[in-house]
Amino acid sequence: MNNLDSDLPTPVILTELEKGVIEEIKEHGGENIDRCIQCGKCAGSCPVALAGFLWFNKRFIHALTLGIKEEILDIPSPWACVSCNKCTEICPRDVKPFEVVFALRRVLVEELAMPTLTMEGLRTLYEYGHAVYQTTYPETRKKVGLPEKPPTTLAYPEALEELRALLRETKLGEIGLIPME
Amino acid sequence: MKFGLFLGCNIPLRRPDLEVALRYVYPKLGVELVDLEGASCCPTWGTMPSVDLAGWCSVSARNMCIAEEKGVDILTVCGSCYGSLSETRHKLLHDARLRDEVNRMLGEIGKEWRGTSQIRHGVWILYKDIGLEKIRKSLKYTLDGLTIAVQPGCHFLWPSEVYVDKERNPFRPRVLIELCEAMGAKAPDYSTITDCCGTGGLRSTNLEKSLKLFERKIKSIKEEVDPDLVVTSCSSCLLQYDGSVKTLKDKGRINFEIPTLHIVQLLAICLGANPDQVAGLAVTSPEEVIKKIRGEE
Question: What's the pTM value of the predicted model, to 2 decimals?
């Protein structure tokens, strides 16, 4: 450590456990989290903040850099992120707040702290190859003169099997969130 | 010119009228579309991106592999698909460790991601590859006398780093405006043009907050632009606008109705397609506007 660094005050001293939270976020894709200076440009551009949620990008980043995790496990708003990436576009420090929020989601999933709708999307992705699935699709398609099945995994069973085999290779297969026989 | 048509979920399963429009517009303008047989969900944000970074990239890369095998770039007009595929492609190009991990997983199903197919937004293909002049000359009906509020959608713009095509200023989008103007409409800028429509995770987490965000935007559109029509480049925005205008009207929270069309649907109508097939599944009826465009008043 050079002299200049050693003269700087250390505002918060993190325990090993708390430091682990930042490392977890970095491992899950939020590599630039400790570049954040809490300037607030991400919050000013965030639809989740504008919609009135009390927790949004800037506050999550703040909490995580303080090593706080348990306390935010049950907050719903990481799942309200619309993935718009306006925060990542506007951030002057290249923190990529979107990546941090999604890293947080991945950490939460490991703790099984996720909404049921997420489970439903994962289930239909595995079952049909489509996360957004509608049982009524064949009639809807017929109405506008299209074949009942689109040329996706729905029309190609071998492609669906291939996708399922791939999904079993991912963490989804490892943590057993959904039945994957 | 040839592209692989990436359908995603929303378009083939919820708004297949937009699929009909896609299959009508591009060939008519000299672009061949080939199906990407066996493609899946992109995958969208609430699924694999939220679970596993490498797993997200592998499902996305599997879709790209289908295009690579056919030697074509991907064309999509769904914001989520465009965003998810472009972001994973960008990650795979810049992170060798991630790429190796993804190719190890793909190896299990006999595939390899090589990165030879680009991800293109269909609206950029209209603007850049086909060009405004060719579009203008191909129109059967123009939009003279019509006022449009454009909704480019988040994933048309950000993060600009990952997209092949970029607006000059991603906070003051011009492409969709210029397309509508080329077709003869007025499409003024407005203060909330880059605001989110409020769909996606926000809508599934808290419907009321999603509606409030949408209400804020649609009221600003009404007040500032007072358009005949909203035109978007994203299938998720299309679903949110089309459904939520009706919801807010039914709840008595707004006293007006503005129909919404995807730009590809609007273009299909102007090129002479059957409106029932290319826009027949709208909840907020665009019938009046379509009559006006086709001179049937």
Answer: 0.96
